[in-house]
């Protein structure tokens, strides 16, 4: 890079359908994802929930494949 800045990927823009799907999946895993506990067991449970949620999200037809970290940022 000429300006010495960090190279970034183009911004991932979610469609309304993708946002709605994610909203529905988060509601299904809400009790785990929104748990306020920060111990290792709860952290691992949250990580597993996000992995399962991402697998379900990516299994839908017509939806672009994304990673766990991309979904968590939305």
From TrEMBL:
Short name of any one Pfam family annotated for the protein: Myb_DNA-bind_5
Domain Myb/SANT-like DNA-binding, first and last residues per copy: 14-73
Listed InterPro entries: Myb_DNA-bind_5
Purpose: Involved in transvection phenomena (= synapsis-dependent gene expression), where the synaptic pairing of chromosomes carrying genes with which zeste interacts influences the expression of these genes. Zeste binds to DNA and stimulates transcription from a nearby promoter.
Quaternary structure and interacting proteins, as annotated: Self-associates forming complexes of several hundred monomers.
Protein name in UniProt: Regulatory protein zeste
Species the sequence originates in: Rhipicephalus sanguineus (Brown dog tick)
UniProt lineage: Eukaryota, Metazoa, Ecdysozoa, Arthropoda, Chelicerata
């Amino acid at each position: 890079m000429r300006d010495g800045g960090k190279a970034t990927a183009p911004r991932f823009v979610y469609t309304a359908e993708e946002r709605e799907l994610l909203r529905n999946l988060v509601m299904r895993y809400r009790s785990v994802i929104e748990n306020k506990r920060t111990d290792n067991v709860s952290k691992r449970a949250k990580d597993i929930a996000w992995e399962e949620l991402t697998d379900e999200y990516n299994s839908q037809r017509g939806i672009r494949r994304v990673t766990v970290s991309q979904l968590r940022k939305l």
